[in-house]
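Task card 7
Instruction: Convert sequence to structure tokens.
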Amino acid sequence: MSCWETIADYGLRSIGIGERVLPREGFTLCQQFTLIGSGMIWNIYFGVLALAAGFFLATAVALGKASRNAVIRKASAWFIFLFRGSPLFIQFFFAYFLFLALKPVSPIFDPFTSAWLGALIVLFLNTAAYSGEIFYGALQSVPRGDIEAADAYGMSGWSRFRRITWPTMLRLAWPAYTNEAIFLFHATTLVYFSGFPAWQQRGDALYYANFFADKTFNPFIPYPILAFYFILLTLCIIGLFGLINRRLNRHLPQETRARMKLKLNVIR
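Output:
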């Protein structure tokens, strides 16, 4: 089988398109690159949707934690503490068995035991908690002079928040939020090693890398391939978020703009 035939058969296998049976012997480098790359579809799915939805909940949680209402403030603080204080791996297990226990209650809970929805909810809540704390810190750091200037122009309420507070908060939080986005995409590799099962061997990139490592007894090929894919994904995130960061800081003088740089650390 040529490499192009392998790509045609296994390129979209993780979402159920193409050859249904995984290769059993004679594993080629093309097969490993193709199947692990196919699994990246799920990693990108989990990361993009959880990050997009979590962004709005994180903003609400940050505003709630800064609220003068004691009930809203405490609820937001406990939400952040709960998801930041417990391991994500345990959250996956707890959520899966919770949804499993709710299945007999109503058929509406059936999809929640599948990774495409159940695991997505866990990632969504987790990143919302971490991002909410980042946004809260940035919200507290909004210069008082900016608020006073908005008041002097007659802005108040929603208008002041939309035009002054929220853009400034994002500008201050964006470098740290970029790190959270990278960590979230890396965390998607935990989905199929938690309670959520892979249906018909349709897993993410780590699922297929582990498959090849078990079959060949050689982890030094599939896992570096997996790392290569995630390095490419990380570079894409840094590039995209760098463009957004430039947009957020477009009003500042060139020499004072905060620039996002890629720093390679040997030890974290």
